[in-house]
Amino acid sequence: MIKSIPGISLIQSSCPSLRTIRSTKQPGDQIGLTIDCFTRPGSVQLVGENEEEIQRDWDFIRNLEESHTLWEVFQPETQEEKEDPTSESKGEDGSKSSSNNKFRPALF
Q1: pLDDT, tens digit, for every residue of 23-65?
Q2: Residue 108 lies in a domain
Q3: Please, what is the Cα angle at 92 between 95 and 89, to 5 degrees?
Q4: In Å, what is the CA distance from 56 to each residue of 1, 12, 75, 82, 107?
Q5: Is 96 part of a structural domain of the chain?
Q6: Inter-residue contact 39 to 33 (CB < 8 Å)
Q7: Structural domain includes residue 70
Q8: Residues 2-12 pLDDT 10s
Q9: Which domain holds residue 73?
């Protein structure tokens, strides 16, 4: 689930070739893996003075995705976690993590 979309303001302030930016998802929406144009959570249109400017902005946006800073997402509590807020679960790397730490970045 989306908590916030900090990448939009970063793109707007850092990409001179940005013409339009469109997000089809908002905080509170579910988000999944993009598999085609119908499941994409947003899009940007870049128009620049030269190819280098567009490539620099493209790379900046891709870096936001790869560094997990475009979207801030969280995983809602499971029923088990709601019943036992002190329970621990295993993170993606296999380490134990407290259920109180629900916010995790994700790459889509």
Answers
A1: 989 999 988 888 998 888 999 999 999 999 999 999 999 999 8
A2: no
A3: 55
A4: 30, 14, 32, 45, 20
A5: yes
A6: yes
A7: yes
A8: 999 999 999 99
A9: 2-79+91-103
